Amino acid sequence: MRLGEKYNMEFLLQETEVLSQKLEEKALFIRRLNLDFVYFKEKNYRNVESHKQAAIEFIKVMNKKSLGYSCVHSTELHCFDDLPIFIKSLAYPYAVNPELMYAKSVLPPAFFSTKCENGKYESSYAYSILSQIYKPQREEIFLKANEYLFPMQENLIIYQWNNDWSNYFSIGREEYGAYLWTIYERETEKFTVIGASMRY
Amino acid sequence: MKFLEKETDRFVLTMVEKNIWMKELVLTYGFFHEENYKGEESHQEAALAFVTAINQKRGHTKIEYTDRVNFPVNLRKTYSINQLLMQGFIIEGNVFFSTAYDSDKKYTSDYATAFFKLSSSYKGEEKDFIQLNNHIFGNRAKLIIYQWNNTWSDYFSYIKKMSGAAYLWTVYDEESKKFTVLGT
Question: What is the predicted ipTM?
């Protein structure tokens, strides 16, 4: 069995593709955001199992984007930092080792919080968008964008994943940070997966 | 000739899984299947297929065939090829795979030079070179190796400017009917 094929999680191609255009139309996140948003439909929700599958499916979509065909290489590798980040300027497939994956649950108020003390954000999602070193966005825009992206914030089930189970994260781990969140909305049965591997 | 894209794309990961150091390696490896081997003609075809495949991975669907003889550095645009300038010559296996030095402490093998010397930041050792070759070239007796000149495409231009040298080899294994193409 290949990864993620047991249950039929559906990649929402069109919705994913029009998102950045829609954000631009609404004047939300005009500047280069460098976060990857991908949508999936998941009718057969299996709690954290579904979140894990959504995270792996996300890597598959990232491979499709750069290679032109959908794939995910599974590996038993434990140290992804040994993989080259770039092979010249070539598109280079991302691999995953699902055994290394773990996640923590994040409650919506903490996830959307813009609280920041001594330069440290309570929410790493807010950090990835608002932080000063990394192409900052305005807080007001961040709040508006979240209202648009997640109209029912209180219904969300959010997991934040570690970042050492795939070379998708390599460049961000070396530079400005690497994150992955899987966000499920029960009513619409939809996953929003947000990945960030932030480089200059 | 069929491009073995998945094998090519997974190659670096497969080597790293075997503990072979691949970071900062200048060489790229591509794999092709050729059922109807026609000697030098097939080697030339493999060289062209390799540069075409690399060009595709840079986001360009079409190679430009040209009669130009100068190829300035081209980082973003589609690669050009002047087929008339291509010259290939046969290399013996023991020369190709050798890790011996000459009196100037330089590798006698151009392949070893490309592997170790073209990037000053490559940290691999001789064992990495040997293990990688053992993995892809199972039966050395059945290999036919061509080395190509580097003046017929801007595929070579950047590395030539950076390190003064650029290489391409097409290696056919008669047993598995597979081409391995190695380029810098």
Answer: 0.80
